[in-house]
Each structure stands twice: as structure tokens, then as C-alpha cells.
Amino acid sequence: xxxxxxxxxxxxxxxxxxxxxxxxxxxxxxxxxxxxxxxxxxxxxxxxxxxxxxxxxxxxxxxxxxxxxxxxxxxxxxxxxxxxxxxxxxxxxxxxxxxxxxxxxxxxxxxxxxxxxxxxxxxxxxxxxxxxxxxxxxxxxxxxxxxxxxxxxxxxxxxxxxxxxxxxxxxxxxxxxxxxxxxxxxxxxxxxxxxxxxxxxxxxxxxxxxxxxxxxxxxxxxxxxxxxxxxxxxxxxxxxxxxxxxxxxxxxxxxxxxxxxxxxxxxxxxxxxxxxxxxxxxxxxxxxxxxxxxxxxxxxxxxxxxxxxxxxxxxxxxxxxxxxxxxxxxxxx
Length: 333
Description:
This protein is of the alpha/beta class and 333 residues long. The protein is built from 13 helices and 10 strands.
């Protein structure tokens, strides 16, 4: 199983192309499969009177409208092209979440091959249909949703042309950060069982433990916010990993991938040599004379380089010794 790891840069570039390019570099260094930004035209996304979410005003320390905040965080189309080319040069996949119809069209023209639908658009029917029509790999976040709402979104995507094999559904919680007791990681498997699609996790909890656990539970996609510095001003920095933490997370996920294995219960190549050392053999518990019957009273189990292995105990009991044995000498069937 290979986990597709998305390093979510989001708006943690603070509207700066140079910071955005540094985020690409950090994602590459961490070993992520993709780095993801957010694409929007503020005028198409929010009204000028829309208020910030509580976590946004708390994290920025600025009380202002969503419009004012987002306008500062908007990347131009030229910026996107630079980042797209930068990702191609660095060997990491460029992704960006579109938040309005114009942004969907632009990202398609830019050549983006994989779509990420954010939790806030779970029930945006026209939006879902536009993305589904491309029938390209599509990742659907389900934060704030219940099973009935997720079912509606999935049905909408399929009816609009998205094939089941191109859909991955992410369990998510949209609290930034998400308290551990609200993560509800088992819901990821509930989504897989209910909809029989590939599933994963968009995680906003502190630290790297939850994404690692998700990998062990079978996540095919893991998305995690990261930043160059959690102390930077902006709405999402405080709920993001720093570069060294992102690298630790990716390394741990890769280790989990290797550790999951085939599921067959067999002795591995690395432990074959330990069988003769760690497993006990049947040896004489005292001196045994030829012609004497092997009994539990004159046999014992010890680690030894002689004698048959312990599983042959029942085959040996009741047989007659063909020769003399000294205390501790290995017994063969």
C-alpha cells in the first residue's frame, strides 16, 4: 500500500510568491508526493460583509472581514504558473483547491491533473458537477458532513461523470486545530465500508500521531497543513506542521507502509537465522542409558545446537533410547 501524502501549503505563503516557492522546497525536502495551495478570486468566494471564522480571528489577532483577509492571501494567475513550473522542476506534483468556478476553469487550463474538493464545498452541487465532468483523480473532504450528506456528494459526482476508481473520500474535521477527542479516526473506515471507495484523512490535529495512525488503518491519501514557521501571522500557521515535523511525518508514514506487509503469517527473511538460536530443543534432563524409555522425567527443553526441536516432544515420549545420553545432550527422534 502506498500512501499519497499531500503537503497542504494552503495560504501559508501569506500572499508572497517567494514564500510559496519556499513551501514547495520544504515539501520536496520532506518527501511529500504533492504540495497543495488554494486558488480563489476573493470577489467570487465571499461577500464583503462575511465574517472570519473564530479560529481565523484568534490566529491572526486581527478582527476583519473574510474578504479583507482573503484578498491579502490571493495568488495571481501568473504566480500559479510559476509555482506549477517550480513543482515540475522539483519533481513534486502541483495541486491547488479551487474555491470558485473561475478557479476551476483556470486550474484545468493550467494543466492540474488531480482535484481536491474542500469540506466547505461538500454540498455545492454545481461546483461538484464541474469537477466531476473532468473525470480525473478527485479527492473529496467531508468535514462537517454526515453520512447522508457525503452520500449526496458522491452520488452527484458519479452522476456528473466521475468514475468510482477516480474518487478518494477523506475523513476530516474542520476545527483548526482539531482536539484529539474529536478526530474520530474510525470514521475513515466507516466511509470505506459504506461507499466502497478509496479513503484517507485530511488532518488538522496537533502533531503527527494521527496521520501515522491513519496510515496504519489503511489511508490511501493523507493531507496535512504545513508552514515555514508556526509563529508567522496568518489564519492557518498555528495549526500547521513546521518543515522538520512534516519530514518526520512522511518518514513515519513510509515506515508504516513497509511495516504493513502482505498479511501472510510467515517467518521473515530477517528472522530466519534466529529460529535455531531462540527455539528450544529436546535434551537429556539427566544421564540416560541405552534401552531406557524417554519420559517427561528424563527429558527437558533448552536452547541448544543439538537435538530435535520442541514440537517433536510427543513423538519422542515413549520411544526407547538407542544409545547412552549425557546430561544436556541433544536428543534426536
